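TOKENISED FOLD:
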Amino acid sequence: MAVLFLGSCDKGSVPSSPKSFLSPYHMDGLLKRVVSFRDDDRSKWRRFRETDTKDVVVLQTFLKDAGFMPRAALDGVFGYVTQAAVRLFQEYVRTIEGVATMKPDGIVGNGTMQHINRWKAAGTVSEWGLADSNNASSEYKDWIRLLQKAKTHYTNQPGPILKEINNFSDLGASIKVADWNFDTNDIHLVGIRREHGNRQHKRPNDDIFVLLIKGMVFKFWGSTDPSVAMANRKHEAFLVEGQHLYRFGWHKITDERKIYRALKPHDARGVLVLRDWDNDNALTTNDLLATDRFGNKRGLHVNPSINIHWSGIGSTNFSAGCQVIAGKSYINNHDSVIDCSKFASRSYKDLSDAGKKTKGAYNILTDLILCYAKAGVQHLYYTLGREESLDLDASFGSGHAKKTLERMQ
């Protein structure tokens, strides 16, 4: 069998209109006019390439049966969802089955095929595929209970920022407290903000992110706050706490050399931010009270460029206001710390055929979302809160975020 990767197509399966095929994914920037796949770990474009076999649909059938690609069409086109499902399978073999030599790069060669054939012979189905929010883990239930408590608490006792949000008319993709949604049929990403009030010019990746998906919990780390060293300007933007609706999309959409998969505000107007109006390199109540030279309150406004994206291996905070995820490590649904440092790239430099590195843990986050979103659903709910909010439930406590971060770092 020939090596299969992004863009491979079975004989007779190349779409008659590549642009239409890609349109559900290519909604942003330069991608709107591109008719090739973006292989962002290799920093290159992959055209639709017809083979003389039906190997792609055989692969897709396996991935669906094994629980990694439940919603994708068996169309014989190795597209974004197929690539994500292959990487999840490889990561599952590497971490759950303990095959340390497996690398989740989304390329199906002889090594990956040996494990596919092994699974086929045994009729194995992954626990990720069998997971369901109706039979959720106890940790998943704890997080949903905490989020529901947070909604009740902040509906009755909104802080200064949430009061402003409740009275704001142009919300973009941000959501008022009364409308926060924690339906377990949806995918939820939770950001826990730490040390935001401390003055820091070079802010580190010191926050955590919790993905709630199919009754499972995966944890990541990075930063919810901008680093002035990255923003390189005054009045850096802090995403406001609360809930926001995000969708599948791309980051760096104006730079063809760097464009890669990310999450973007579901509304093109963006999400609500509060800027560091007093330029103390921190988020404080003073920023909410700041006025311009005419005495007008500066306050909140919507910003279209607050994405959820990659932050290298985590040694540098690459946020100028976005929510950023480190690639070095994550915690899986068994509460085990998973090290990705052997293949996780520090920056764009090693994302090439020569470098052969990937975005590590960040890919696991985006692949889980892409593969396990329900048919026709291209969004998730992102809820950002402060670590003090963890005190609302005795199962957590404000120290939980720091302890979780330390485990991954």
Observations:
- The chain is about 25% helix and 20% strand.
- The chain has a mean pLDDT of 94.
